[in-house]
């Protein structure tokens, strides 16, 4: 009896292995026969978001740095990942896509590898203006579009939903990821300019972290502090970010007047809100283009992999923006509300008040 049962199990295992081999051969035959670049431009963009020429250029840039040990062609791996970014489908659905079929396990490995590859090779696409010339381009853009002076970017945070992390993580407890909206997320801080190009991104913090808490330890804030201290001795012109009341008022980060009582204060709040809308639109465009970032799609990955996916999508968005691709998408409304720590006043708050008051007096 036991021998018969063992024989039956072995036969079942052989049949399952043969089915897997047949499926593998079938997927390979589909890959060999398909040519996604033969799709029309419109259909290609629907699948992969980038145009065919931008996609070829991306593949050419990434290929010399690819170190994934696999027999799958890099073109197939990159296109499958772009398709996932664009549609946010489950891995198995993406792997079964007729344009670049592969197994779920192969796709999972490709996703991690390609996302990290994009961040490593194309990370410079997210670049904060550092030179006077770069700053002046952004300042001029904000003034011409919104009437606000000396602005080098709009800053805010947005939540990207992730699956509940392991509950036994000592360094990052599960509770740190449960945001005030009631779902698990990464709280992503970003800066964008008047063209909706992202110039800074920080996806290192779990969802329960206040916006001001992320800002307090930001590398960008440290840079702006050093820049501000240097400018006090070199007569450099003032420059600042604009953010909502989730951020502390500082000389390099102007927030709205909480209770405006004069015409000039109300005017300042109006142009401030108009300029700040850039970052809200920027988040909306990225989430519309790359629907894997939408709240109801939920990234089923660790914080580290999810952060690489988020950063990759923002990098690709910037590539598209620089290439002049129109924002012809239904922009997703971002439901992020500012999350202020009541104890977020800093040693620079008084100086920030003087800077804002000085600017308001010129309106």
TL;DR?
The chain has 363 residues and is α/β, with parallel strands linked by helices. The protein is built from twelve helices and five strands. A hairpin with a 5-residue loop joins strand 2 (185-192) and strand 3.
| Residues in β-strands, percent | 5-15%
What's the quaternary structure here?
Answer: single chain
Structural class, judged by helices and strands?
Answer: alpha/beta
Enumerate the spans where pLDDT stays under 50 for 5 or more consecutive residues: 1-20, 25-33
Number of helices: 12
Indicate the mean pLDDT: 85
Mind describing the biggest β-sheet? 5 strands, mixed
Silhouette: globular
Helix content bin: 40-55%
What does the radius of gyration come to?
24 Å
What is the end-to-end distance?
Answer: 93 Å
Strand order of the largest sheet: 3-2-1-4-5
Report the count of strand segments.
5
* Order of H and E elements: HHHHHHHEEEHHEEHHH
Topology at a glance:
Elements lengths: L1 H32 L7 H8 L3 H11 L11 H14 L3 H5 L8 H19 L9 H15 L4 E11 L23 E8 L5 E9 L4 H6 L2 H16 L5 E4 L9 E2 L8 H27 L13 H20 L26 H12 L3
Helix pairs in contact: 4-6, 6-11
Outline the structure in words:
Strands 3-2-1-4-5 form a five-stranded mixed sheet. It is 51% helix and 9% strand. Helix 4 crosses helix 6 (104-122) and helix 6 packs across helix 11 (303-322). With 363 residues, it is of the alpha/beta class. The radius of gyration is 24 Å and the shape is globular. The protein contains twelve helices and five strands. A hairpin with a 5-residue loop joins strand 2 (185-192) and strand 3.
């Amino acid at each position: 009896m036991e021998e018969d049962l063992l024989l039956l199990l072995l036969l079942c295992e052989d049949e399952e292995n043969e089915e897997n081999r047949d499926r593998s051969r079938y997927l390979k035959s589909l890959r060999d026969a398909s040519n996604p670049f033969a799709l029309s431009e419109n259909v290609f963009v629907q699948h992969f978001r980038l145009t065919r020429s931008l996609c070829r250029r991306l593949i050419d840039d990434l290929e010399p740095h690819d170190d994934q040990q696999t027999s799958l062609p890099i073109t197939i791996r990159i296109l499958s990942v772009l398709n996932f970014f664009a549609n946010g489908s489950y891995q198995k659905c993406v792997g079964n896509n007729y344009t670049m079929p592969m197994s779920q396990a192969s796709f999972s490995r490709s996703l991690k590898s390609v996302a990290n590859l994009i961040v490593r090779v194309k990370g410079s696409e997210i670049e904060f203006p550092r030179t006077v010339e770069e700053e002046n381009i952004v300042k001029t853009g904000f003034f011409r579009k919104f009437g606000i002076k000396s602005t080098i970017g709009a800053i805010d945070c947005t939540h990207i939903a992730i699956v509940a992390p392991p509950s036994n993580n000592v360094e990052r407890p599960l509770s740190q990821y449960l945001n005030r909206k009631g779902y698990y997320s990464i709280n992503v801080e970003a800066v964008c300019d008047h063209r909706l190009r992202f110039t800074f991104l920080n996806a290192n913090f779990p969802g329960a972290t206040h916006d001001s808490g992320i800002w307090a330890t930001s590398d960008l804030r440290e840079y702006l502090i050093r820049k501000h201290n240097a400018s006090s001795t070199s007569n450099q012109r003032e420059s600042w970010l604009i953010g909502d009341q989730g951020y502390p008022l500082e000389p390099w980060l102007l927030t709205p007047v909480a209770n405006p009582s004069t015409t000039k204060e109300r005017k300042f709040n109006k142009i401030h809100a108009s300029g700040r809308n850039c970052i809200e639109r920027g988040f909306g465009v990225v989430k519309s283009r790359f629907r894997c970032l939408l709240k109801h799609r939920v990234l089923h990955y660790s914080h580290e992999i999810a952060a690489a996916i988020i950063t990759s999508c923002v990098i690709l968005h910037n590539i598209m923006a620089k290439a002049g691709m129109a924002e012809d998408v239904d922009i997703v409304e971002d439901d992020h509300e500012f999350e202020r720590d009541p104890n977020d006043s800093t040693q620079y708050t008084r100086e920030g008040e003087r800077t804002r008051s000085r600017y308001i007096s010129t309106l």
